[in-house]
Amino acid sequence: MLAQTLIDCRCPKCKKGSLTLDESILPVISKDVTDGQEIQEALLHCEYCNTLYPVVAGVAILVPNPLTYVAKNYSLICSLASQYISSLMFDYWSKHLGIFSENNTSSMDWNYDDPLSLSLYIFAHYDKITEFLDLNHPLRKLVDDEYGDWYERLLNLAKPYLRQQPKVLDIGCNVGGLIYRLAYLSQFVYGLDYSFGSVFTARCILLAQPCLQNIYHLHIEGVTYQERPISVERPNNVDIVVASAGNIPFELKYFDLVTAINLIDVIPNPDCFLDNVDSLLKNQGIFLTTDPYYWETDSSAIEQWIGGRPNMPSNEAMRTEVSKRFNLLEEQDIVPWVLRVYERHYRLYFNHHLVAQKR
Fold this sequence. Notes:
Elements: H1 5-8, E1 19-22, E2 29-33, E3 36-46, E4 52-56, E5 59-60, H2 66-72, H3 74-81, H4 87-97, H5 115-126, H6 150-158, E6 167-171, H7 177-183, E7 188-193, H8 196-206, E8 215-221, E9 224-229, E10 238-242, E11 255-261, H9 270-280, E12 281-291, H10 314-325, E13 326-342, E14 345-358
Parallel strand pairs: 6-7, 6-11, 7-10, 11-12
Antiparallel strand pairs: 1-3, 2-3, 3-4, 4-5, 8-9, 12-14, 13-14
């Protein structure tokens, strides 16, 4: 976590208090980096409700119940980051949760943290699908040379409406591909995701913290993988935290642009989320969103869906809900999005893009 991120954060639980470093329980471990100061390990204290939020291997866990989150994701956190976690942090967890050695085997939370899923999304965010489809491949009719960089093409919809050097928040950022593209247009870009694995991976790729990740292993088939480079110029104006879309830990009316890519259909309350976006944007701020509307009751109750029900097509329902809060600027529908799983398995979605402006 970059030290400057603390200035812009607020408590996700009470939504009132600012966060400060608390050295009364654990010492702060930090180091100087080109972007300023990197907080590698610490407890952040809300001055209003006294909740403590851990920073683990540089990843700030800013969810309303941080110890519960750690308990559910303990095995994952250890598998990815144990070498960057001090014995004092392990002792703190042991005292407050009654577990914990580094060999704890509690189950992982959220399938986005699975190594195969992380590889799948690294490919989608940073690699080129056209390099893996020869000219005779059946998917070439959808993924031709004009398909290009899917995220860049999406971003091009919003570019004409962006203020110079905007402050940006990417909600549900996954492994950070859109953050990477936004960095070159922005003063600063924050990303958040509920998946510890995604945030840890994004920080390794984009900030080289707590370690550099410049390769990944692409699934070919079975137990066959191909080592692939991750070729990025690392930006110095981004940071990524663990947080939920329903409890966003940033100041209100702070952002010029908020993005939500393939998120609406995987959060518990999409309608409330749109209200949250409205509250985060400055006046005349821009909201960029896209989704294939793959609704499932595992993510949200049917009555919470924006569309997906008889006489309520998702594209029309989403357009209506967005228009209640924003002025609609751009819209594209039935936009192919191809997600590669392995050599013989691709998922095809048709997305609905919207660009809107806060009134």
